[in-house]
Structures are given as structure tokens and as C-alpha cells.
Specification:
- The complex is a heterodimer of chains A (251) and B (283).
- With 251 residues, chain A is α/β, with parallel strands linked by helices.
- Helix content of chain A is 37%, strand content 25%.
- In chain A, the strands form 2 sheets. Chain A has a 6-stranded mixed β-sheet, sandwiched between helices. Chain A has a 4-stranded antiparallel β-sheet with strand order 2-1-4-5, with helices on one face.
- Chain B has 283 residues and is mostly helical.
- The chains are: A alpha/beta (251), B mainly alpha (283).
- Chains A and B meet through α2, β6 and α3 of A and α8, α9 and α11 of B.
């Protein structure tokens, strides 16, 4: 298989909501252990792209391949695909009626069939690793935004995904809470997790990404190593976008 | 995501009193006494009062008829408990069926809509009559073993499930779509998502309106008397006919009220406990 080191590939992915075409043919490759950041204005299709990879949105055209297996083919078991791909949302989306531990152990128990005890042991270890051991029995309402988002990351990790998708995971946070979440993501990157990250944190993208893709009006207009994209973008649109970001003081 | 209200706040009736000290409690007590005194005075001084007192508030008749009516009331409680247990499950099933996605399930969704429309539309008393007299009239041998009591319970289940299904549905729809996305993204199937994520949140939200429907159900158990079974209301009718005094009705009313008050308090307690848990973390 030629795609041995390829974790994720998108071929001409198109997606419309009614008449509004959000993704107009996306081609993207991620090698294993690679961290790729998607940047672009709101509405450029970043979130939709991630939701398509997780099969939360069916695509209209094209194909998506994860570790050599086409997940957009007919007859693919959607639930099994999703177990291999973790996604973390902007609004955390923790289950408010469950404690932190229950949030983290639900899917391993029900989708992977782990025993309650094994799932709890694994969850405790993960929570410990991300500094959340003492929040184990708390309910999400009691946690800060940063803690909630870290729990959401742990919840996704508990399924031992092969690829992680992060959808603007710091956008809903107070500025002083952003750092703790970024630290967790950096740790994942250091551990070799393959990640596709939609973000507005340009400084973070520059630090962590091996490649940055600029998404504009449903296409990847430009991609390359962060040093080049941020200092010498080739496309006029990319330059305008980065100028606006700099104006807003976010780079 | 937050549930909203402050857990430290007291009941809606007494809440304001607590913060503002002893003085306002005295004022509230005094005004309550004055108000009650006026109401009692108006009733007791009315020209018809002596007759009403004799017809409705006869102590001896009350004491005489109470045990018998209370015993009959056990049947109301039985009807209510059986019906409630079935309704809780059946109505949830209807609500879930009505929410099934995709064109394949259109007939099932349509059926659920027809059911809720139909049984919310027909007066309960008619459903009881139609089933209670209609079903046995079919003269099907396998139907014969069912008593009027059975048909009464079936009628109540059918009518109240239609209401409760709508309450459940409102609850299910009030859970944000992002919860479903989160659950599905973790690899949970659609039924697992409903069972572990959507329905638990939906049910918590609809406990108060659910209880409201169940209080209605408690009262409507009296309608089953119309096709035969002797429950509290029918028993009090019998007593009234024997004594030419309406006090037994008062007896029955009192029993129904005594049943609903603990239900209401139980719900308050459940809601408060839930809120405490979510806000304070586990003990």
C-alpha cells in the first residue's frame, strides 16, 4: 500500500448546505504524526471540513481516506470510523448530566465494550495526565471553560483515536484560560498524535503546525510551512487575512 | 448548558421572606390570618351557610363514611400506579418513534402523530365508555377475561400517553443538537445516544410538566367508576345516596388532595436534588 504513512487524505471533497456550497473541492494530505492547522475567516468552511471528516456531515462529492481506508465509501460502518477519529468542539459539548468520569468513560464502555472498572482506570490515568485528577467526580457546570475543554479532549482521547480533529477549541475561552488548553494540545503533538486543527490562534499555529492551510471560500487557497505562510504568503487573499489578524493584535 | 436558577434560592412562595429578616415573616403571617378570617367570615355569615354546613360538613357522617371511602380509594391508587408505570414507558416510546429520522420511518412517524392527535382530541370519558362498553361487545372470546377495570386503565393509558408523549418530545427537542453530535462523534450509535445522552437530559427537564399530567391522571381515575368499578368517587356516591348528605364527597376530595401534595413535594425535591448534584459536584 502506497498510503502506509498517510493518516488522512481528502480528495476533491465538496459539501453544500442547500444552495450554499461551503466546500468546493478540498484536497488535503496528512502524514502520520503530522499536525496541520487550518486558518481562515469565519465561514470559510473550516468547521464543516472537520465535521465532514468525522462523518457528522455527509459529503456530496469526493472521498476521505483514513489510514488507507476510504471512510466515505458505501457500507462503511460509521460508528466504527468515528471511534478512530476524535473530535473536540468549540463549545466543549460535555454531557451536563454526567460527572467528569462518566463523561470520559461513557463511550469506551458503550462503544468499545470496556468494563466499568477498566474504563474508569483508563480515564483516571488520562485525567491525571492532564491535571484533572481532582475533578473526576465534579459535574461540568462546576468547571472553568479551560477545564471543561481539557475534559472534552480527554473524553476524545479515551477512545484512543488515530487522528484528532480540533475545531477552534480555544475560541470560547477567556484569554487567561487559553494557555492551559494549548499546553494540552502541544503535549499531544509531542506524543505524535496526528491532528487537524482549525484555529484562530495564529501564534499557536506557527509554533505547533508542520503545515498551515489557508481556507478561503471553500477551497484551500494556499498551504505550506508556517514560517512561509505567515511571513511571505503568495496569495493576495492570504495576505489580507493575515493583515486583519495582525490589526486585531492576534499575531 | 447551565440549568439557570440559583440553588440557594428558596421556594417561590417563601423565597423573598428569607432574605429580609424577622419583620417580614410577621407581616406575612398577620396578613395571611386576616385574609383567611375574612374568607371564613364571608362564608359563615352567608344566608345559606347553615344548610351547607349540614349538607357538606357533617362530622358524624364524615367519621362513618371515611374508612369505607379510604378503602375504595386504594383502588384509585392502584389504577393510578399501574397506569402511570405503563404511561411512562409507552409515551416515551411514542415520543422516540415520532423523532425517528429518515424517509423509511415516515409511516411510523405518521402513526405516532395520528395517535397523539386522536387521543388528545377525544374526551377521556368517551374513551372510557367506548373501550369499556365497546370492547366486550365485540364478543371475542379472548377479550372476555378482561374486566371493566382493565378497560378503564387501558383508556387512561391511551389518553394520558398522548399528552405525556408530547411532553417527552418537547424535552427531547430541547436538548441541543451539539449533544447529539458529541455523542455520535465518540462512536456511540443513534440508540445509545438517545438512551445515555438525550433522554436522561430530556426527562430531567420535563419532570415538572410530567408531574402536572400525573396529577390530572390521579383525578381522572374517578372516571373509571362510570363503567363499573367501585372506587372512591363511586363509593362516596353510594354513601351520599344512603345518607342524603354530601359530606362523603368532601371525604373523597380530601383524599385526592392528600395524594397530590406529596407528589408535588416529591417533584420539588427531585428537581432540587438534581440541581444540587450538578452544581456542587458529587459528595
Amino acid at each position: 500500500m502506497s498510503s502506509k504513512c498517510q493518516a488522512l487524505r481528502l480528495d476533491g471533497v465538496r459539501k453544500s448546505f442547500g444552495k450554499n456550497e461551503v466546500l468546493k473541492g478540498i484536497d488535503l494530505d496528512l502524514a502520520e504524526h503530522e499536525v496541520v492547522c487550518l486558518i481562515g475567516a469565519s465561514g470559510s468552511g473550516k468547521s464543516t471540513l472537520l465535521r465532514c471528516v468525522n462523518l457528522l456531515e455527509p459529503i456530496d462529492e469526493g472521498r476521505i481516506v483514513v489510514l488507507g481506508e476510504e471512510i466515505t465509501a458505501h457500507g462503511v460502518k460509521v460508528n466504527e470510523v468515528r471511534r478512530r477519529i476524535g473530535i473536540v468542539f468549540q463549545a466543549y459539548n460535555l454531557f451536563p448530566h454526567m460527572s467528569v468520569l462518566e463523561n470520559v468513560t461513557l463511550a469506551p464502555r458503550k462503544a468499545l465494550g470496556l468494563s466499568r472498572r477498566d474504563a474508569a482506570a483508563q480515564a483516571t490515568e488520562l485525567l491525571d495526565r492532564f491535571g484533572l485528577a481532582d475533578k473526576r467526580d465534579d459535574y461540568p457546570d462546576r468547571l472553568s471553560g479551560g477545564q471543561q475543554q481539557r475534559v472534552a479532549i480527554v473524553r476524545a482521547l479515551a477512545m484512543q483515536p488515530e487522528v484528532m480533529l480540533l475545531d477552534e477549541v480555544t475560541s470560547a475561552l477567556d484569554p487567561e484560560l487559553v494557555a492551559e488548553v494549548l499546553r494540552v494540545i502541544r503535549e499531544l503533538a509531542d506524543g505524535g498524535m496526528t491532528m487537524l486543527i482549525a484555529t484562530h490562534e495564529m501564534g499557536f499555529a506557527r509554533d505547533i503546525a508542520s503545515r498551515v492551510c489557508f481556507l478561503d471560500a471553500g477551497v484551500i487557497l494556499e498551504q505550506g510551512p508556517p514560517e512561509r505562510i505567515f511571513s511571505a504568503p503568495e496569495q493576495e487573499r492570504t495576505r489580507q487575512f493575515l493583515d486583519r489578524i495582525i490589526e486585531a493584535g492576534r499575531l | 448548558m447551565s440549568v439557570g436558577a440559583d440553588p440557594g434560592r428558596g421556594s417561590r412562595i417563601l423565597g423573598d421572606l428569607r432574605g429580609s429578616g424577622q419583620g417580614s415573616i410577621w407581616i406575612a403571617t398577620a396578613s395571611t390570618i386576616v385574609f383567611a378570617a375574612i374568607v371564613v367570615a364571608v362564608i359563615v355569615t352567608s344566608p345559606g351557610w347553615p344548610a351547607v354546613k349540614k349538607a357538606f360538613f357533617n362530622r358524624e357522617i364524615f367519621v362513618d363514611s371515611f374508612p369505607e371511602i379510604a378503602r375504595a380509594f386504594l383502588l384509585n391508587i392502584r389504577i393510578f400506579l399501574i397506569a402511570e408505570a405503563v404511561i411512562l414507558v409507552f409515551a416515551l416510546l411514542i415520543a422516540v418513534l415520532r423523532g425517528l429520522p429518515g424517509p423509511v420511518f415516515f409511516p411510523i412517524r405518521a402513526l405516532a402523530v395520528v395517535y397523539t392527535d386522536l387521543f388528545r382530541g377525544i374526551p377521556t370519558i368517551l374513551v372510557i365508555y367506548i373501550l369499556g362498553f365497546g370492547a366486550p361487545a365485540l364478543q371475542l372470546s379472548w377479550l372476555e377475561r378482561f374486566t371493566p377495570l382493565f378497560w378503564g386503565i387501558v383508556a387512561l393509558v391511551l389518553v394520558y400517553s398522548a399528552y405525556v408523549a408530547e411532553v417527552y418530545r418537547a424535552g427531547i427537542e430541547s436538548v441541543h443538537r451539539s449533544q447529539e453530535a458529541a455523542a455520535r462523534s465518540l462512536g456511540l450509535s443513534q440508540p445509545q445516544t438517545l438512551r445515555f445522552v438525550i433522554i436522561p437530559q430530556a426527562v430531567r427537564r420535563v419532570i415538572p410538566p410530567l408531574l402536572n399530567d400525573f396529577i390530572g391522571l390521579q383525578k381522572d381515575t374517578a372516571l373509571v367508576a362510570l363503567i363499573g368499578p367501585i372506587e372512591a368517587f363511586r363509593q362516596s356516591q353510594i354513601d351520599v345516596a344512603a345518607t342524603f348528605n354530601y359530606t362523603p364527597y368532601l371525604c373523597t376530595a380530601l383524599l385526592f388532595v392528600l395524594l397530590t401534595i406529596p407528589m408535588a413535594r416529591l417533584t420539588d425535591w427531585l428537581i432540587a436534588r438534581d440541581r444540587r448534584r450538578q452544581l456542587a459536584g458529587a459528595a
